[in-house]
Protein 1
Amino acid sequence: MLDIAFSDASLPTSGAIAVLAAPGTPAGAFAAVDAAVGGALTRAAKAAKFGFDAARTCVVLAPGGGYDRVILVGLGKADALDATVAEQAGVAAARALSDAGTAGVVVADTVAPDLAAHVALGVVLGSYRFDLYRTQPRKGDAGPLANVTVACADPAHAATAWQPLAAVARGVCLCRDLVSEPANMLRPPEFEQRILALRDLGIEVEVLDRDAMHRLGFGALLGVAQGSDAPPRTVIMRWNGGAQGEAPVAFVGKGVTFDSGGISIKPAAGMDEMKTDMAGAAAVVGTMAALAGRKAKVNAIGVVGLVENMLSGNAQRPGDVVRTAAGQTVEVLNTDAEGRLVLADVLWYTQDRFKPRFMVNLATLTGAIVVSLGIERAGLFSNSDELAGHLSATGEKTGEKLWRMPMDAAYLELLRSDVADLKNIGGRPGGSITAAKFLECFVNDVPWAHLDIAGTAFTSKPTSHAPKGATGFGVRLLDRMVGTYYEG
Ligand code: BES
Ligand code: MN
Ligand code: ZN
């Protein structure tokens, strides 16, 4: 993650700078720089019909006065300037600065110090890159942004406001790193190692291996795992920042490190994207890192089920019957509906052991949710209006938007099996809903929500807070939801 510093608004007189400015008469640093370059900025803005709309940029090359480039970044109308707009301005500034070099200054002298910290968050999230496996820079690539200074009116105040946001940014970047890793580099044991590193943040980590899961009766999860040479794991993270004895909040993630579909194999085209089928688990890990990193006053549990869904002579067959930790049996009619099998055991175990205030699970669960909601919103399924309300409202704030889906009892009827208690597929119609109803059978009436993030975890085009690729969806959402409703 790049280094952020805060300075006062005494400006550099050379190099590349990004100046945040609202529509109207030039003010503050923008007016000062414009005067220093003989009005070149206002002339360029006029020629480009640049209206200073939120997060729009106008790049002015060699305006004079020693500057290589001055990037004008719109802040939009003053009354609409909030944390999200500040973050989007930071994202836009970072994108434009990274075309120029590896360091830069973002001038945010006209926004409140708290919002200057959100500009910094946008800079970090917008400049994210996954370069681990590049041995050579791409042609014309200036390299990743490494140092950015945010110049603002009250740098000490902004730096203090930045501390918790930096922890959130690290959580988002950790999530993106995990999702971006190719599946040969991140199988369940490597994923476990990455989680163990969170002990440095004060998170307690406990690992269930195959034997431990066998003793707990995790027949559904182990059935998915049995076709892979990589051993499965369930990893439990605990952050004890709240009152002793207070029931924890719990987050549960689907961590299928690669989803080939198993014997019900997926088509070849696009199968590579199934390296991201652990994005739910990555979001849980990122959220726990954010909460611990900012020392949130809450008791939180994160539990991830890590398996690889592969084909082999020992792989699970269509028609197999497995016994879940809850005791219910499931007929596996399609081995590609594996996420719900993993989550069935992990959800049951989480509520049974930790008696949480609520459970939220995240999962790249169904292609059907992409058909329903596209990449703009994740599906929200819940048995609790209160929890669903908290999640929806927070999502509107952070831009990780959700849309609540129905959960009528009638959908459960589609999951009745001829030979077992349940079958793992309910047909194509309402495919995301039957998947959610399946999960609901394993939550034991604890307040619970399921976020189907199949469309939002990974994108082929940049979003408001992320470059193309892994978005980190869920980390800012869950961190902010805890902060707003469940802390202290
Ligand atoms: N991991 C997939 C869902 C998915 C699809 C995630 C596209 C991201 C992008 C999941 O395990 C799966 O294969 N679901 C099946 C369910 C079906 C067999 C009932 C699907 O959606 O086709
Ligand atoms: Mn699948
Ligand atoms: Zn899957």
Protein 2
Amino acid sequence: MLTKDQFADNHFIRTIIEEDLKSGKHTAIQTRFPPEPNGYLHIGHAKSICLNFGLAYIYDGQCNLRFDDTNPEKENQEYVDSIKEDVRWLGFEWSGEPRYASDYFDQLFDYAVGLIKEGKAYVDDLTPEEMREYRGTLTEPGKNSPYRDRSVEENLDLFYKMRDGAFPDGSKTLRLKIDMASGNINLRDPVIYRIRRAHHHNTGDKWCIYPMYDYTHALSDAIENITHSLCTLEFESHRPLYDWVVENTPVTGKPRQYEFSRLELLYSITSKRKLNQLVTEGHVSGWDDPRMPTISGMRRRGYTPEGLRLFAKRVGISKSENIVDMSVLEGAIREELENSAPRLMAVLDPLKVTLTNFEAGKTQSRSAAFHPNHEAMGSREVPVSPTIYIERDDFAENPPKGFKRLTPGGEVRLRHGYVIRCDEVVKDAAGNVVELKCSIDHDTLGKNPEGRKVKGVIHWVSAEHAAPITVRLYDRLFTVERPDAVRGDDGEYLPFTDFLNPESVREITAYAESAVQNLPPESHWQFERIGYFVTDRKDHTADKPVFNKTVGLKDTWQKAA
Ligand code: ATP
Ligand code: MG
């Protein structure tokens, strides 16, 4: 359920919108989320989705979903479908049908013809290399192309022929005639059409020329009557071109572009191209691998839409650098699950404990609530039997100072159960502890023992009742904070794949309370004292449970960093 306080407050874009509504410049706001369907969405996109859909929600406006599909070679239907699914999963609904920049290709072509007729665009024959030479640099102005002064008639003729397939790929372009001496390189006669014989996921083989991003984006915004076009800061220097395109074409909409800083997440990667490389080179099992910072990966990992929205609110919206530690993301996820996930006990690294004085009829079980603060989540019996499992590291033969769990001769409370004392440690031939023999204090079920304090409480499961479960434990995917920004001795960037963590996933068999049986996929649970886990979306079945570790109970990142 969305509420208005779930979104970043008091940022500069909200201020602008509030002023625009107050002054009557706009009576309603219209935003859009404009992904290119060339990969799955990632955590950076989640920020942009929460911003665009969030603003529409807060100010009772509308937000479009528009696929910015101008690069047919890299785009496909799988990406379109995944993007729709991810936006909905995050809790948002777009206005009307999804839109496609490719829906406007006819219109964009007509506008280009109009620009040619007004002497504002020309067909150029420069090769890409020549074009680069003519473009100039940040400090030097560019030079006019020798083809810049073609007549309107010649340009029109050539542009129609470009469309009709008369020229080979890459041999000609259509460029805007703006200013080759502009201090802003984006205004040095930008290319707005190129020839490319590529099959398009939407328009098929209808076109062999495709419009370029800047031209398409500005016009798509204008066609859709977008009021506030929000993008990341690297487009700031494209804004004059955006405005030029809107002003010089007969579109009715007058969108304004505003830029905010891109989210970067440490120990992670926020680029579809690089994430695609992880998938195609097999470093991960797919786009939705639970280690991936993709929305579908995080979903499979057990992150929740509410947790991701909380994260987006916390990172906020501004123009200053937005490099965020993983602990901020995990903190938001943990905080949300703390309140929403029911609790159970599971033992990941079992040590057998024999309860020597277990007595059927005398040794009792208790019922325990699934959540200490939410009675409505219900409760279950926590059965006990002569053999139980505890976590191996909850026992220490030679306890370090301050160790509050089980030790030889020491006592500990079993969560939702009795106080037990360790009377005997059983070892194998190699000297490994293989079993503990413990006795129950039968007078401690639901009450404190007489005359002494037992501080430690540990989780456990009854061997007879426990269900085996597969558990996948995840660690960070990369070993360095900024895997795509490490330079080698020669000053060049090293491949980010050099910094993959070889131990980022481990699969084990664990034992859990029988309530884990017959769960549907995507059930979120806290395993007490360990962390949050989710039943896997793909591999979990009711009789063969598979749990992914979402996040630990404590922040282990700060320590490790
Ligand atoms: P990528 O390099 O991962 O492909 P992109 O910006 O090219 O990113 P688009 O599909 O074009 O991806 O992005 C759709 C929207 O999401 C854009 O408005 C873009 O500004 C925004 N966006 C993308 N990455 C981030 C990020 N890291 N932080 C915030 N917004 C982002
Ligand atoms: Mg892009």
